[in-house]
Write a structure and sequence with these properties.
Number of helices: 6
Radius of gyration: 35 Å
Helix content: over 70%
Number of strands: 0
Strand content: under 5%
Structural class: mainly alpha
Oligomer: single chain
Order of helices and strands: HHHHHH
């Protein structure tokens, strides 16, 4: 190991220079540093990587299936919650657009639609008259 690869931790024990291994182990055991280290995220990541490296094909397959299942159910639960009250950006945007659309639905919009239909039928009749 090189000192450039050493990562400082928040756990420390008082030791003298050139302390023997037995003294280091005793100091670490006294303050339960190894137990505290095993509780950190970095240690858990290292342990999970070792477990994945030592797993069989079938165990990796089981893990993949479990992850897919968990993702499926979390998406389903989130979608149900999103329907009840909009949480996601897309649903909030959709609700806003629906609200704006409700303003234009009504007599004013219906009258405009009728005018457009009348215009196109008149234009179609005019074209039909020119062809004959």
């Amino acid at each position: 190991q090189n000192l450039k690869n050493v990562e400082p931790l928040k756990f420390a024990v008082p030791l003298t220079e050139n302390a023997p291994t037995a003294q280091v182990k005793a100091a670490l055991a006294k303050k339960d540093i190894i137990g505290k280290w095993n509780g950190t995220g970095k240690a858990k990541a290292i342990q999970s990587k070792i477990a994945l490296d030592n797993s069989t094909d079938f165990e990796r397959y089981q893990l993949r299936v479990a992850k897919r299942s968990r993702a499926h159910w979390s998406r389903k639960i989130f979608a149900e919650a999103d329907k009840k009250s909009p949480i996601s950006f897309e649903m909030k945007k959709l609700r806003k657009m629906e609200k704006v659309q409700q303003k234009y639905v009504g007599k004013k919009l219906a009258a405009r639609g009728e005018r457009i239909k009348k215009f196109f039928t008149a234009r179609k009749a005019k074209k039909a008259g020119k062809k004959k």
